[in-house]
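Researcher: Please translate sequence to structure tokens.
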Amino acid sequence: MDLPEGALSRRALSFVRAHGQRVTSNRVQRSAAHWIEQGFDEGLVLRAVDYERRWGDLYLPPSILFNGGPQYLGPDLLAGHWSDGGYLEAGPARYSVFYDFLLGPDGAFGVGDTEFIPLYASVEGWIESLALEYEIRGVAKEIRKLRGSEVSSLDLLSMPSFPGVSGHSESWLMDAERVVLVSRGICLISGHPDDLVAIVYSGIPDREASLGMRLP
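Model: Translation complete:
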């Protein structure tokens, strides 16, 4: 599979090669001239072309959150509010949701309804998170999902970030016994406290070997 060199960790690269599929369409490159003729900003169109060359038409397994995430990675230009603000569609939703998956002007990967909520610093961050999610779900002996006020039972401020996953409203944290995914994205869009989610993975045997890194 043709992937950008040096863009992903060994874990994520192995995940994409094992579970991903890429069927190149070059749709954006074929549409670029027409989009510019329609009045779209040329810089935005060139960003879409670059994104397609890097990650376009890459199908990955679904995430446990965000209704599975994008069906595949690939840009589109969403006319009006989003394109005027310099946003690209990061990929079409796998199922019907009330938000779009977007790439911000700075490359952040996120979701947007009336405003943009960055989830990760880049689309690579989303892929790294998905790869870690799949790996850790396969080795953790216990998985608990907490919602809303239940999340306050965790001392999140004392947990360092899990290295290699550059999150914004989504964050991977860890301590001596657990690895925790904290998801604030939907909560920030909906305004409903119960949409805050923490997924706690514990009972991970030989964490250095199973997760590919030394943890405290």
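Researcher: Any highlights?
Model: Residues 123-139 form the longest helix (17 residues).
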